[in-house]
Amino acid sequence: MAATNFILVDPALTAQTAVDSSITEAGGSILVNTNKVTIATASGNTAIAGTLSAGASTLASAAVTGNLAVNTNKFSVAAATGNTVVAGTLGVTGAGTVGGALTVTGKTTGTTGALTGLGNYADQAAAVADGLGNGDLYHIDGVVMVVYGE
């Protein structure tokens, strides 16, 4: 099938003044300059050979249904689970909430803070009797303790 050329007309003009042969139709797709922009008419899939720029490159919102990856593996979110991986330093300015277990590998530091929700026990034996195990935190009259040797 031969390619179809499109004629671009400025609606403000009364006569047809320009022909742009770089926009064609071939095999059910619209092509700009052979392969610089391709729109598959059956699916609407669009391929852009160059850089896509939109204003000041501001994105108000995005809905992503598949996996999300920034620079291959610097920041990723698995679509199926929501698991998130951050390869660099994660900085949190506001409060953070962890609804499940928090696992920390490596050294943990802080300048100020408070641990809340820890059980208060008379001693380690009482904490262990209540179900705490190695590495669990509890306190004795405000002093934070760690279950060890159990």
Short account of what is shown:
The chain is mainly beta. 4% of the residues lie in helices and 23% in strands.
What does this structure look like?
With 150 residues, this protein is mainly beta. The chain has a domain at 115-150. Helix content is 4%, strand content 23%. It has one helix and ten strands. The protein has one helix spanning 124-129; strands spanning 4-5, 23-26, 29-32, 37-40, 46-48, 68-70, 75-77, 84-86, 137-140, 143-146. The strands form three sheets. It has a five-stranded antiparallel β-sheet, with no helix packed on it. Strand 9 (137-140) and strand 10 form a beta hairpin. The longest helix has 6 residues, at 124-129. The termini are far apart. The mean pLDDT is 79.
List the keywords.
150 residues; mainly beta; 1 helix
State the shape: rod-shaped
State Rg: 30 Å
The proportion of residues in beta strands is: 15-25%
Number of strands: 10
Outline the biggest β-sheet: 5 strands, antiparallel
The chain-level mean pLDDT equals 79
**Distance between the first and last residues' Cα:** 79 Å
Q: Which blocks of ≥5 consecutive residues have pLDDT under 50?
A: none
The percent of residues in helical segments reads: under 10%
Assembly type of the chains comes to single chain
Which structural class is indicated by helix and strand composition? mainly beta
Order of helices and strands: EEEEEEEEHEE
Question: What topology, given as strand order, has the largest sheet?
Answer: 1-2-3-4-5
Number of helices: 1
